[in-house]
């Protein structure tokens, strides 16, 4: 998989927000890379810092956010670029689609207007030619009667159609990286499958990389080449999707898998399957940030910061004392919580 | 939409009717008799002459009879004759309305142009130096009544620049320079409040829109400031600005009554002012009806603008 230079590399990214209660660290020291044509899934529960990371990559965090670290796009660090310079990065190099397609489209302009605007932003072409291209894009994202729909306003479309239009708008930029922040959370299950299928097809056709933000492990299994698992603003595990799915190293990843919704379970109920909640950035626990909710935590987890251990010769990483070669402290551990969930240590051969 | 506009116009007529009746009755309740005020300066007026004049004007009739008489005329477009010189009220208004129209439009233009520029400039860099100073300007524009601002402007210009506007009215066709020299100050004074509230509303509305998801998406596609700010953000901020504009148009109309009198402009405002002083009932009522009609039309136009700006607005 790793043959070309990374299209995008995030290195030691920190994002702090100014809040009335003082600065809070929403993202602390996140690093990962995205190769050309690769699909990376960024997973984690609500509040773990996925959207903040994605928005930081686009430099779209609002006022009050401070960003440290490097974000390298094609070898160029974009963290220091001005708004004006960012314009050449946004769209062409990467663009982003969001969770709620209703609020992400400008309600006052027709679909055609927004598409033509975007097409002409990135290509020198006549209006008439841009309208042709807009029609073509709507057709590609599977909108029936694309020519007629150009005149439609966002409120006249269904949720699925709106997300298709959002995708068409992203394609109009011909980006090399598409960041999709929970693109199907607002849609129902049948539409979700269609949209994911559409994204996957277009990704191949347009030769794009995809950063798919999600908290649904079933989607990860379906789509991802590699997985980056985030918890409370940190990466806790990363590696090839196949391996992580087969053999998760971090207890948090394991717990996430137990949340894969089955057709009978209600999705919202499934998301609360890990007892407790992601700590707010104001009150991060000492030691491992996951230890209060971890079934296999022991004394060492409560005190020291846990480093991100490289495993399998650096192909994957896990931020847990119990993972792989790092599990040296296992012998003398004292379990501080009664382990009802089998942890990764027990599962390992 | 046409149906909606017609229905609104019908309501408007109803409102104007009620206002007319109210003003008619209120005028009668105000102390001071039209005839006595008119003849007050004339020496040696006898009681008989007063009674005669009162009868001639129809003021000896019961109030309700007078009301029905006036309304009957008004429906056919005849507002009667001025008590003071017998000239037709319709003719007086036709002479004066264009003058007030010019003043009102100038005031509105000043308010809208300055208000939009100030509002946008403040929203682009919130709490910057420009924003802070503009906030001061707009707050003072809001809290100062237009007549006082008008007086202040005249006084300061006279004292410090030794310049005062001409007091003899000239139409824009005869002498555009002289006309503007006289009209600009009152237009500024009248437009200040509109400028201030438009600036404030646009600033807060823009700031909110600039944080919105869809604007972030526009930026995510690499759009520049022109597209984000002037196309998407501005139009999305306009609805509340139009609401304010409708209200402020009313304020400007009301303000003309005093400002025209201060600056010696022969428009509807000074006509109304003099007519009230002289208890010239037909002229006052004619002016009230015209002011009311303009206000109603402005508000219908504002409501229809909502639909032009926002495709989601449906008129029912
Ligand atoms: N503008 C902001 N100001 C202050 N704190 C913020 C801001 N944006 C996000 N945060 C905080 O940063 C943390 C991470 O938020 P983020 O939106 O990245 O979570 P997420 O992983 O995307 O969750 P979800 O699945 O709900 O989208 C949260 O605790 C949130 O409260
Ligand atoms: Mg999110």
TrEMBL record, chain A:
It comes from the Bacteria. Residues 8-257 form the ABC transporter domain. SUPFAM superfamilies: P-loop containing nucleoside triphosphate hydrolases (SSF52540). It is found in: Cell membrane. One of its GO terms (cellular component) is plasma membrane. It is a peripheral membrane protein. Keywords: ATP-binding, Cell membrane, Membrane, Nucleotide-binding, Transport. GO terms for biological process: peptide transport. It holds the Pfam family ABC_tran. GO terms for molecular function: ATP binding; ATP hydrolysis activity. PANTHER family: DIPEPTIDE TRANSPORT ATP-BINDING PROTEIN DPPD, OLIGOPEPTIDE TRANSPORT ATP-BINDING PROTEIN APPD. Belongs to the ABC transporter superfamily. This is ABC transporter ATP-binding protein.
UniProtKB/TrEMBL annotation, chain B:
Belongs to the binding-protein-dependent transport system permease family. It comes from Mangrovihabitans endophyticus. One of its GO terms (biological process) is transmembrane transport. The chain crosses the membrane at residues 9-30, 103-124, 136-163, 183-202, 238-263, 283-309. The lineage of its organism: Bacteria, Bacillati, Actinomycetota, Actinomycetes, Micromonosporales. It is found in: Cell membrane. InterPro entries: BPD_transp_1_N (IPR045621), MetI-like (IPR000515), MetI-like_sf (IPR035906). Keywords: Cell membrane, Membrane, Transmembrane, Transmembrane helix, Transport. This is ABC di/oligopeptide transporter inner membrane subunit. Its main location: membrane. The keyword 4Fe-4S does not apply. GO terms for cellular component: plasma membrane. Residues 97-306 form the ABC transmembrane type-1 domain. It comes from the Bacteria. It holds the Pfam family BPD_transp_1. It is a multi-pass membrane protein.
